[in-house]
């Protein structure tokens, strides 16, 4: 009964779309990296640094969009580090990715303590406000869910289309996908696998950081350490779930967000009184594992994912 | 001999030298390529052919020397510059992305990387025109992963032609083709030459070199060992130039076959990705007999090797070993049944690069005494075993404790051979045992297989090189799409007749062919 | 640029490059100190002093190193088989939960039997936690990196539930905390009066045992073969799936011992902040040790020293203690790069 009520409430769908937004940014970022052949386990830390950098910039007086830009730059910087170590030097993408996550997380924590040594609760900023789209926002159910969101959410949904078009309809996308499938095919056509992969990791990391920034600048209004809380790892699962296709991955993010929004609401129903709240909180992680399991059989992994390419070696 | 007026020089290599550490891969190589000619670059494995072409194409940078295309020097180390200058290369290992379509593969890198449009329609029309002009039929919308080897090669050639290549370099292009496909390729090359293109044809197959080229350059140990007009030479002289001596074919003494040691009856195995499984394969491997398996790569050879090697069990059909049905089937069971396995890929499956020779030597036997007891390794025994192999098989190496990756392909193969043959196996599975080896190592491996036959072992020789199969086998089967042809006794079939089977014709009406 | 292998790297390369990596790490630390307005030399000095400057500090470092040795070994064992166990954190908590479960009166055994029984049970629990992701990997091909990572979060929520529910200490004044272990279940100190418990000795013993397994047994050989080239291992008849499972059991068990030794040796009870990321730090420890079990002991002491030293420096010099996290992560990244460059030469063009 309660479940039905939840599914029919506009606030539920609005929440689902909101929760999906940071995941969409980060999932698209990870997807770009993986399509080019690089697994980016730095995602979790890069989301943290994005959340911190964007928020800090705004706290220090920058405009909201400038904050998003700063977050993106911070993410790209760590992306550059990841790319340099994994692409030309061909180091283990597992080890480097985890190292980047640890480093980025630590950097955010260090910078936070450095700039705010004594505060007990983090200061708030004025986050992005919803931009209801006139006319559309008044449609029942769909309106509040899709057309009364903050601009960052609109940006996330626009990016799904942009990434799809770039990957499947432009020379760049062609080369990028080929770099992740068989880098020799790119090198033989006179393009640089190194440049393509590094570019993909840097841009992808920028998107992940914007996903992190969404948390501090649109969803909440301040930064705290446990904020990202495994969302990065969930996004990696979403890329697999989406079979490395932007549209499917974003759909997965939405589905996932709907479950997440649903569990929060179920907690407040009588069911929540019987079931410990931790069980509800486990749902996202369990769902991610389930998604990986379901897709494992028919996944079309880019053939050169995690395979370093050394020019002239064959 | 009358010569026409010499055509313009389209490509000039001048004093190309390339070292890899202490190895001199190319030593001051110079030659010219003229418009409208097919030049064959002949040499055995390791002679430096591929290195030279990779320098020309910009994958490697030469230590010394220059490359000129149409009179202009080519900047070193830039594949893009070579492409722009009109050099197109068809690599031995195809450079295609399997999950993309033929058209997409052709288009990679053909438009400015940041431009926003891909004119698929115009591109498709152009590919169709080129395909018609050069006789390269292939569906531009097909995913490359679904294509046959021959079709993939056509895509590679189309890639070069699409970019207006004036000079085509083909690296061992016939290694993966049926005789009929080879003939079609030659037809395409002849068309290309009449249209004013120039071709460098890299090969170690003398017959093909004689058939297609107008001029032959012979490479030996990184040096240009000779240059000769094809009309002025023959196979024997080319062979001598290539290896410095006549090539001696292994001789098979007449021998009556013994009992069947391994019998397959109507065996089916599952598909694995793009690789077909076996479909109703019946086969008997007899003592004292070499059974050759011919076929275009990717037609089920891997499945048959996996089955006999213990990696795959039949889903249907029967298998008998020494007259008994094995209870369970695994690599260990195969080893225990006396099956020696020489794997197709010595780097990926035959050895573990970062383990020492000793550790590689006991890979198949470490779990048994004397190399281990109750879970504890006995390393001195293992090392003694490695030393025995090194001595018996003349493995050139700094010692048993160095990682095996430091060994040359031939020496690595000798260690694998020694490991496999140590226990005196009754059945030998030799999957592409000489691929990529130089002539000395090839002779050695072939001699070992013939010796094993002489001792009464049953040998299954799988090879994509039809000449090798025909030279060594007592009986030949052809494999196509996981089906096996009838057994053809030695000498009963010509290469062209086998080629018909390799192309899949004859399997429907198998009755009238056998 | 491109990398070319070096057949026989010179001694200078093999020693100089890791040294350069360390120097780079120290340089990074100095820059961070400068950024925080502190004197770099004084800051570094305070870190060293805080780590080994007194008997108390040194013992504190060894105490902190104890769980890191266990998690470092867990990671080292797993990574050798190229089993990416990033879930040492979850396995640690599994061990801790079992320790509390059995150490609060559930097992009526004398201490001489009780403690080993608890340790073994804890190991079994940790092994079990890793078994799930590994079976998903060997059966379905699900990447274990993500699953083990996600299990960390699930386990932490599970522990949170236990500590607020069935395992809550009735005398805990409402804090999410477990009851204290009985005295008979606690690991005694090695020397009376010195704050170092037998968990440290157990950790050294574990490192030795892992070393023996890796170099002397067929399992160690199988693990290496599987890790270096699973395809060749399978071809040779090594049961790759079984080896993976055995590796996982060993790895999970070792990580669980970290939880056991923290609860039974140091804390005496379980709280949600039992591990400040020991599982993740174990990855750094293992990589710095080049996955060598004996090296793990040294690198764990080094990493522990950085953390203990940074804590004490932070109180004195005001540089945020997170400098330790940056330092160890930097050490990890520079070290893997240095190691690559000892065997590969960079060729431009």
Counting DSSP E segments of at least 2 residues, the number of strands of chain C comes to 2
Major β-sheet profile of chain C: 2 strands, antiparallel
The strand line-up of the biggest sheet of chain C is 1-2
Which percent bin holds the helix content of chain C? over 70%
Task: Give the beta-strand count of chain A.
Answer: 0
The poorly predicted ranges of chain A are: none
What is the count of helical runs of chain A? 14
Structural descriptors:
heterotrimer; A: 314 residues; mainly alpha; ABC transporter involved in vitamin B12 uptake, BtuC; 14 helices; 70% helix; C: 349 residues; two-stranded antiparallel sheet; 2 strands; globular
Task: Record the SSE blueprint.
The complex is a heterotrimer of chains A (314), B (514) and C (349).
Chain A: H1 2-7, H2 10-35, H3 43-59, H4 64-86, H5 93-115, H6 142-147, H7 151-169, H8 171-181, H9 183-187, H10 193-219, H11 231-241, H12 246-267, H13 270-274, H14 277-295
Chain B: E1 9-20, E2 23-34, E3 38-42, H1 49-56, E4 64-69, E5 72-73, H2 79-84, E6 87-90, H3 102-107, H4 120-134, H5 149-162, E7 167-171, H6 179-194, E8 198-203, H7 206-212, E9 215-220, E10 223-229, H8 235-243, E11 260-268, E12 281-286, E13 289-294, H9 301-309, E14 316-321, H10 331-336, E15 339-342, H11 346-350, H12 357-361, E16 372-373, E17 376-377, H13 379-392, H14 409-421, E18 427-431, H15 439-455, E19 458-462, H16 466-472, E20 475-480, E21 483-484, E22 488-489, H17 495-502, H18 510-513
Parallel strand pairs in B: 3-8, 3-9, 6-7, 7-8, 13-19, 13-20, 15-18, 18-19
Antiparallel strand pairs in B: 1-2, 1-4, 4-5, 9-10, 11-12, 11-14, 16-17, 20-21, 20-22
Helix pairs in contact in B: 13-14
Chain C: E1 2-5, H1 11-35, H2 40-52, H3 55-80, H4 88-103, H5 111-140, H6 144-164, H7 198-216, H8 218-228, H9 230-235, H10 240-267, H11 278-288, H12 293-317, H13 323-343, E2 344-347
Antiparallel strand pairs in C: 1-2
Please tell me about this protein's structure.
The complex is a heterotrimer of chains A (314), B (514) and C (349). Chain A has 314 residues and is an all-alpha fold. Chain A has a single domain (2-116, 145-295), classed as ABC transporter involved in vitamin B12 uptake, BtuC (Orthogonal Bundle), CATH 1.10.3470.10. Helix content of chain A is 70%, strand content 0%. Chain B starts with 8 loop residues before the first strand and ends with a helix. Chain B has helices spanning 49-56, 79-84, 102-107, 120-134, 149-162, 179-194, 206-212, 235-243, 301-309, 331-336, 346-350, 357-361, 379-392, 409-421, 439-455, 466-472, 495-502, 510-513, and strands at residues 9-20, 23-34, 38-42, 64-69, 72-73, 87-90, 167-171, 198-203, 215-220, 223-229, 260-268, 281-286, 289-294, 316-321, 339-342, 372-373, 376-377, 427-431, 458-462, 475-480, 483-484, 488-489. Helices cover 33% and strands 23% of the residues of chain B. With 349 residues, chain C is mainly alpha-helical. Chain C has helices at 11-35, 40-52, 55-80, 88-103, 111-140, 144-164, 198-216, 218-228, 230-235, 240-267, 278-288, 293-317, 323-343, and strands at 2-5, 344-347. In chain C, helix 3 crosses helix 12 (293-317). The mean pLDDT of chain C is 93. The interface between A and C is large, with 49 and 48 residues.
